[in-house]
């Protein structure tokens, strides 16, 4: 069979990994599909010393690649929103399939991009956009296609998980570990996207859509970062038998879709609680299969390139077939996407970890528990610790059963208004083990 | 598009699950692929009370299904070797695609079956044959297609993992837990296939072939059961920081393929060491992606049916395309399969846990360590425990670095011949954490 001709746009971390693996494992790859995948053109602002570009047409204008009649598939690895979107739409316009690792682009502009691709009869593949080398898009769209998937949760930002793991295992504080992560190259100079959960929310938005068959709704995702998690909370969680992870959680409920990224207590008996360091993992629950989990490196040159090439292999295998032979962009075909909205976080029901300072005064605990019981919030576990050094303050930690966030907001306001409660209540959401 | 017509042969645990999920999630499934999957005929010795067969053509002769011109895909769920093989070959002969959950059939007769299917231009799909609901065949053949995969290991028998987990967490002994597993329905009345590792070896054979691109070579797999693992060994392993799991291990080395199922010490820091109970997990290492792991239920009606239906969905999606649009049966196309042989276990290099009884006599430890050092076997950890009650026996436990099995056999023979060593040496292989 005729080789599939690929044009790579962007020759940075992922682009160079893609180029190099395609070369190194060319025989293995063509042995799997019976046709070669050949990089015909590379569009990049500069060459990459790790890539031997001998014999490859190199251009400084990525749009040359998108318009090149000799290119069958355009691989978009430039990142960002605007130019990437224009590049992808240009490639589609020219009848080319697209492979991208750009989670921000798909989460924000995916609905528009997929509509354009379907109109033109081409495919935009994005396995590399979520959880790096883990074939999670394929697992959900194809491997679990029998299932009514009702929830999933993921550790889908390696930087955040590295920071929380260090805090948990070594008692270090956030700022200290962040600095190390930046020195190690795990975190960007501006770590906002990673530690504030925006990157995770991009990925979660994509996972929720393909799992539930709903449109991409990134703008409605609830996002809370890990910068306020303290070593003290990590330690109390540990005492309760929980780990704190920066979890992306998506659920399909009768009221709507939950789509939220925030620090989360997970019981230590759950496998995902044991996923440490920069590794990623996504747990998916389907009505037929039950609980499954997918684990691997969520970033890096060759892990991400592995996912880019998996998409190229799928495209090469089905190259002579039409779009129907490939999975629908969002897992479900456009006419089967259900326009179910995302719940405001106030309507989400979850469990809570609460930490507060109380003055050691008769009756304060009675008032505290009364506030909760009046709102039907039941307590699963409680820790009370007297302050050292003999002052009259105590730290109270509570783990509650599930309650609607709005009710919890009211309860917290009432607790903070109590005479003998000092300062504000720290609140971290918790996921109960099944 | 025209619906895909399915004939199900066998309406037991997995057959009924398949039938029921196809019905329950019909809308979700057709929403994903844009065409319906309809069960046209069921061939089963008896009806199943959980299945409403109204409107379905029911036959008592499964070969009716294999020959039925109205059936596009035959789902083989009768199990066993001979009749299943005849059924599958008959279906192929009649130009039908086949989906099977039969690991024994694929591991033993797969080479022949796939050759027949390829000659006829049809596909035999078998996601459900390995690790139940976990889409591990898809992950390896497609999701990791960019990679040179060099090793994988799996907990691929839920019964065995349940037994070892109970032994580890509760200090129970093998026979006691096996009896409970049988009462719970996890283990068959004749548990040989599960606890002696034959079932795991079937699955490992399949995984190794699709990962490495080698023929199915079940008859050359090394298989050792868990019936001789004692609570004492579980406890000593724990002291050393290890768990004992019944692991299937496949490696591609320069000398050949390692293919072995045996009790294995795994360091507790490895995620796969934390996979407990009846759950399955497969860890796969590729040169690009690094370490990945896939986790979920390895058996049961609906988990296995989830995998059967994933295959049906893939076939339905590519139904109008030819075999080239679907992954090659063994991951690599027939002309790219490398006929690499399986290493005899004597040639395998691994680490070892050794446990022996020594009489408390000057010089015995010196002789023991001399036997090891003469053979370049270095010791990673050692435990020596005096027997209680004042007799002069001590238990010695050693954890060694990697050495060829043949050398270890010689060392063990020499140790057992020592004057002050009582009885035989217990040996369990160990996998080092990376």
TrEMBL record, chains A, B:
**PROSITE patterns hit by this protein:** ACT (PS51671), HOMOSER_DHGENASE (PS01042)
The top EC class is: oxidoreductase
Q: What's an example Gene Ontology biological process for this entry?
A: methionine biosynthetic process
What are the binding positions for NADP(+) in this chain? Answer: 9-16
Catalytic activity reported: L-homoserine + NAD(+) = L-aspartate 4-semialdehyde + NADH + H(+)
Instruction: Give the enzyme's EC designation.
Output: 1.1.1.3
Pathway membership: Amino-acid biosynthesis; L-threonine biosynthesis; L-threonine from L-aspartate: step 3/5; Amino-acid biosynthesis; L-methionine biosynthesis via de novo pathway; L-homoserine from L-aspartate: step 3/3
Where would I find the ACT domain in this sequence?
353-430
Which UniProt keywords are listed?
Answer: Amino-acid biosynthesis, Methionine biosynthesis, NADP, Oxidoreductase, Threonine biosynthesis
Superkingdom of the organism of origin:
Bacteria
The UniProt record gives the binding positions of NADPH as 103
Annotated binding of L-homoserine, by residue: 188
A single Gene Ontology MF term assigned here is: homoserine dehydrogenase activity
* Enzyme active site: 203
What start and end residues bound the annotated signal peptide?
none
PANTHER family in the record: HOMOSERINE DEHYDROGENASE
Q: Family per UniProt?
A: Belongs to the homoserine dehydrogenase family.
The name this protein carries in UniProt is Homoserine dehydrogenase
């Amino acid at each position: 069979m005729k080789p599939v001709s690929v044009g790579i746009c962007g020759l940075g971390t992922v682009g160079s990994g893609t180029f190099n693996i395609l070369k190194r494992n060319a025989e293995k790859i063509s042995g799997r599909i019976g046709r070669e995948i050949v990089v015909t053109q590379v569009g990049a602002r500069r060459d990459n010393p790790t890539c031997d570009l001998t014999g490859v047409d190199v251009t400084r204008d990525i749009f040359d690649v998108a318009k090149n009649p000799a290119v069958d598939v355009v691989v978009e690895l430039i990142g960002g929103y605007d130019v990437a979107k224009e590049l992808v739409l240009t490639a589609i316009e020219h009848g080319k399939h697209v492979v991208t690792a750009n989670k921000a682009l798909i989460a924000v502009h995916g609905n528009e991009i997929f509509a354009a691709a379907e109109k033109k009869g081409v495919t935009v593949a994005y396995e590399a956009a979520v959880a790096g080398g883990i074939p999670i898009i394929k697992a959900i769209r194809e491997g679990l296609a029998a299932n009514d998937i009702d929830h999933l949760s993921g550790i889908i930002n390696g930087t955040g998980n590295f920071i929380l793991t260090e805090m948990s295992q070594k008692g270090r504080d956030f700022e200290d570990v962040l600095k190390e992560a930046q020195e190690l190259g795990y975190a960007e100079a501006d770590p906002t996207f990673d530690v504030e959960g925006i990157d995770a929310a991009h990925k979660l938005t994509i996972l929720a859509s393909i799992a539930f068959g709903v449109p991409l709704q990134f703008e409605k995702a609830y996002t809370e970062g890990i910068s306020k998690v303290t070593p003290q909370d990590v330690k109390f969680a540990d005492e309760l038998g929980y780990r704190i992870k920066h979890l992306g959680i998506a659920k399909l409920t009768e009221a709507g879709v939950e789509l939220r990224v925030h620090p989360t207590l997970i019981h230590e008996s759950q496998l995902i609680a044991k996923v440490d360091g920069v590794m990623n993992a996504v747990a998916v629950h389907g009505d037929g299969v039950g609980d499954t989990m997918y684990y691997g490196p969520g970033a890096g040159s060759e892990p991400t390139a592995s996912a880019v090439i998996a998409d190229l292999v799928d495209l090469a295998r089905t190259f002579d077939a039409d779009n129907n032979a490939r999975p629908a962009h969002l897992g479900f075909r456009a006419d089967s996407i259900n326009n179910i909205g995302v719940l405001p976080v106030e309507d989400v029901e979850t469990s809570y970890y609460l930490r507060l300072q109380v003055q050691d005064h008769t009756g304060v605990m009675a008032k505290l528990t009364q506030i909760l019981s009046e709102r039907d919030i039941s307590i699963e576990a409680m820790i009370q610790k007297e302050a050292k050094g003999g002052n009259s303050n105590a730290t109270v930690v509570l783990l509650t059963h599930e309650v609607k966030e709005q009710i919890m907001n009211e309860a917290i306001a009432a607790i903070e208004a109590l005479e003998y409660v000092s300062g504000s209540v720290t609140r971290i959401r918790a996921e109960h083990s099944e």
